[in-house]
Amino acid sequence: MQLKLLWDLQELDLKIKALEENIEEAPLLSGVDEASEKYEELKTEISEKENLLKEDRKTLKNLEMRTQKIVDDRKELSDNMYGGTVTSVKELEQMQRKMELLAEEKVKIEDEILVLMESIEEQEELLKKKQSDLEQCKQDLQKKEARLAEDLERFNRELESLRMERIKAAEKIEPKYINKYNMLAEKHQGEALARVDNDICGGCRVFISSGLRGHLYNPGAMVYCENCGRLLVRLDS
Ligand SMILES: [Zn+2]
Q1: Is residue 83's pLDDT more than 90?
Q2: Which CATH architecture has domain 19-171?
Q3: How far is the CA of 213 from the centre of ligand 1 (A)?
Q4: Which of 18, 118, 119, 232 gets the highest tally of CB atoms within 10 A of its CB?
Q5: Residue 61 CA to chain centroid, in angstroms?
Q6: Is 195 within 8 Å of 8 (Cβ atoms)?
Q7: Mean pLDDT of all residues in the chain?
Q8: d(Cα 143, Cα 148) in Å, to the nearest integer?
Q9: How many whole angstroms from 170 Cα to the centroid of ligand 1?
């Protein structure tokens, strides 16, 4: 009877051990870390792209201001040229030359503006796509976090109930059995007891010698496998 109780205790301990391992591995298996890393990377990428876009918008604004300045300068020049105040031919020629240079510069800047506007438009579109990717990432991360939290809560509830069960189970077992069990469990990764099936030790799969077999029918005897040293249990069923 004590051996059967000890066997049940071992079953409980093995369940507890497996559950503790599940709890330990759950964060890694959940993919939360990976999803979180992906999310942070994308966020950084977006922030960098936003900064570049901001720079380009600033450049565009400067170019537009420069164009306006050229228009103003040309207007002033033209007013002076045709206002009748300047009479020197040489001076008029210089002013004319300046008018032409300004016109050339304006064309060049307007070309730059066009290229830049196109690039800004492309960047805005890409950013929009990245932001939608980010939203997707965020939802994925939140889903995984929620699932992990749910799993952990369930595991911990199970663990608590198994530990209570274990306390009750251990109370029914005599200390000398418990001591032996603890010693053997440490040696055999929690599997102190081995079930005998068809005269084979369930722990090491080696045949039980005929000499030992007889002792297995004595309910009070503690019989150990000659090969692995585990405490042998016969279970009806
Ligand atoms: Zn064995």
Answers
A1: no
A2: Orthogonal Bundle (1.10)
A3: 13
A4: 232
A5: 41
A6: no
A7: 95
A8: 9
A9: 24
Ligand 1 centre distance from Cα of residue 181 (Å): 15
178's enclosing H/E stretch is helix 175-187
> CA-CA distance, 199 to 207, in Å (whole number)?
6
How large is the average pLDDT for residues 60-67? 98
Give the containing element (helix H, strand E) for 194. Answer: strand 193-197
CA–centroid distance, 128 to ligand 1, in Å, is 66
The string of pLDDT tens digits covering residues 4-29 is: 999 999 999 999 999 999 999 999 99
196 CA distance to ligand 1 middle (Å): 9
Give pLDDT tens digits for 204-223.
Answer: 999 999 889 888 888 778 99
Render pLDDT for 135-179 as a digit per residue (tens, 0 to 9). Answer: 999 999 999 999 999 999 999 999 999 999 999 999 999 999 999
Ligand 1 centroid to 147 CA: how many Å?
41
The Cα–Cα gap between 116 and 211 comes to: 94
- Ligand 1 centroid to 177 CA: how many Å? 18
Ligand 1 centre to CA of 186 (Å) is 15
Total residue count of the chain as it appears in this document: 237
Domain boundaries, the chain: 19-171, 175-233
pLDDT at position 57 over 70: yes
Q: Which of 60, 58, 53, 59 is nearest to 124 (CA)?
A: 53
